[in-house]
Design brief:
about 190 residues; mainly alpha
Length: about 190
């Protein structure tokens, strides 16, 4: 959906709930991307300190490896969620390109529903794992073991939410957009 179409609909009051959802989801997407970037930088710093501690100070810190793994889980899953929102994941684009508009719409809707189910299951079972292991402590860092599974909850929730937004957008579009054979990256 083009920005021009959004502004026209906003001025007409059409789909105001969807427009509000799009603004909130866009903000969440940007925040998730910035947190992912900060997590990558923090993980790099922790690994750098691990190398300094091991090879220069001859005293390897025990907290850097579990912290690095936790940060990596967060930035991978938050980044994956942003990829869902931007439509940057692997797909069967050639099938969408050659499908008729009604078949293309059905394929897109089916994809969004399946991705929503996957994200919801990831969040649900991630929460179950986190709560089931919360009483144990992580090795090398004084945090509950359940913290290791919270990225599944956050990433799964955002994957579900971002896919829901895409589903609503596809359901409210009157025209089924063409799918080019090469993906064009759109930055909002």
């Amino acid at each position: 959906m083009s920005e021009h179409t959004l502004k026209e609909r906003e001025s007409m009051g059409e789909f105001s709930g969807l427009l509000m959802l799009r603004h909130v989801v866009r903000l969440l997407s940007h925040v998730a991307l910035w947190i992912s970037g900060a997590g990558l930088v923090a993980m790099t710093a922790a690994v750098f300190w691990q190398v300094i501690g091991r090879y220069i100070l001859n005293a390897s810190p025990s907290w850097t490896e579990p912290l690095s793994l936790l940060l990596m889980s967060w930035f991978i899953l938050l980044g994956a969620a942003v990829g869902v929102r931007e439509g940057m994941h692997l797909g069967f684009e050639i099938g969408l390109h050659f499908a008729s508009p009604p078949v293309r719409r059905a394929m897109e809707i089916t994809t969004h529903v399946l991705v929503m189910a996957f994200g919801g299951a990831m969040a649900w079972y991630g929460w179950d794992l986190a709560m089931g292991t919360w009483s144990a402590k992580m090795a090398g860092i004084d945090l509950p073991q359940g913290v290791d599974y919270l990225p599944l909850v956050g990433g799964g929730f955002l994957i579900c939410l971002f896919s829901f937004e895409r589903l609503l957008t596809d359901l409210t579009e009157k025209r089924v957009p063409e799918v080019p054979l090469g993906h064009v990256h759109t930055v909002e």
